Amino acid sequence: MRPPPPLPTADLPVVVIAGRPNVGKSTLFNRLVGRRQALVADTPGVTRDRKEGIALIRGRHVRLVDTAGLEEAAPETLFGRMRASSESALDEADLILFCIDARSGITPADEHFAQWIRRRNRPVLLVANKTEGRLGAASAMEAYALGLGEPQAISAEHGEGVTDLMWEIAERLPADPVPTPEYDDDDSDASEDVVEDRPAGPLRVAIVGRPNAGKSTLLNALLGEERMITGPEPGLTRDSIAVHLKDGDDTFEIVDTAGLRRKARIDEALEKMSTSASIEALKMAEVAVLVLDATLGVHEQDLQIARLIEREGRACVLALNKWDAVEDRIATRKAILDRLSISLAQMRGVSVVTFSALTGSAVHKLLPAVRDAAIVWNARIPTGELNRWFEEMLERHQPPLVDGRRLKLRYITQVKSRPPTFVIFGTRAEQIPDDYKRYLVNGLRETFDLPGVPIRLQTRGTKNPYANS
After folding, report:
1. pLDDT for position 259
2. pTM for this prediction
3. Maximum separation of any 2 CA atoms in the chain, in Å
4. For strand 14-18 and strand 60-66, is the pairing parallel, antiparallel, or unpaired?
5. First-to-final CA distance of the chain
6. Across-strand partners of 89?
7. From start to end of 44-122, where are the E strands?
8. pLDDT at 171
9. Cα(182)–Cα(433) distance, rounded to whole angstroms?
10. How far is CA 89 from the centre of its chain?
């Protein structure tokens, strides 16, 4: 069955969840999108950047946005920048879900932000969360005092009242100009011989790296707007935030991830959740953009992240940020690439892009490099061409002797792409030494132009019918 084409998110109505910190906005977001997509913890201020997802509300797809908690703060502070991000989301909303914590009652902050939202002239639906139990409904009635109409009593954590809430959301959405597309699952007319270069849909990209390398600043530069919260404080990004970006005829789904630190330095439960979300985003990506602070060079943690990319079999683009602050650029570039080639052979030939995310200089070079890396990652080599190369490699350097007997390697085939994976067949092929495997892998990379992607080489031995005679 073919996967459905991606929904045109720009045409979907936007529903924004807003409210003060710790009222359950992210829990409600997860409940409406139908999966645990946003980080949730019993700590105020977990959500910093606004997170988006597609929710199906009574047969209608909507773009659902989870925002940071609304707080009064100076514009230059972290909380001020978080509030500015939430304001931008509210300005795009077709419907605002204003959340309160019914168990805590109406607070002065609720009253303040209810008036603030009312002045924005956007449709608002008041949601009284945490109303489970006998006193829940009675507590929700206090929300009438906010002047936002009848409150919808729910418990996002337990799912109580969410069905009724979805009906109310559907009633208040703008008219749908185009019916929600339906997809034909009938593949009877499709040719079985057709092999697509990659699945339909946006090219999935994960931006990874150590804290404070400039990952969020890079994403903002690509988008041309302050989409992510940035600043001098390390570790600002906590959750993995996905955005869609159009570049020419191609669409990219770019995920900004939390900075990855050494395990020994990960203490708090929330940071462990952030790290897990980053690794999960990397597993779902096709191309990983490894962002390095070029002024600091390659640290051991950068190498650990590169090894993780290789282990997960992702294509990689090396992004050297803060290049404008590097004095000796030739020496810096050489030192970084030498360190990578020595410590991680699978990164040989990786595409390198130098830029300044803060000024936006040369950032436009990144997406073409990502596109090229994805093409290599999806590469397929015809079996005939592959075996002609294999015969030449065997003639150039014969298979080694193992236990006094020479290995008999017969043929090679590519069993999959994403990443390119090959299987060698032959008598006792499973005994090929690692150095001979490296010789073959390097030959594959150079001959068939497979730079910067992991190459998997597997073996299948065949039994000798005369072994026991």
Report:
1. 66
2. 0.61
3. 93
4. parallel
5. 50
6. none
7. 51-57, 60-66, 95-101
8. 85
9. 53
10. 20
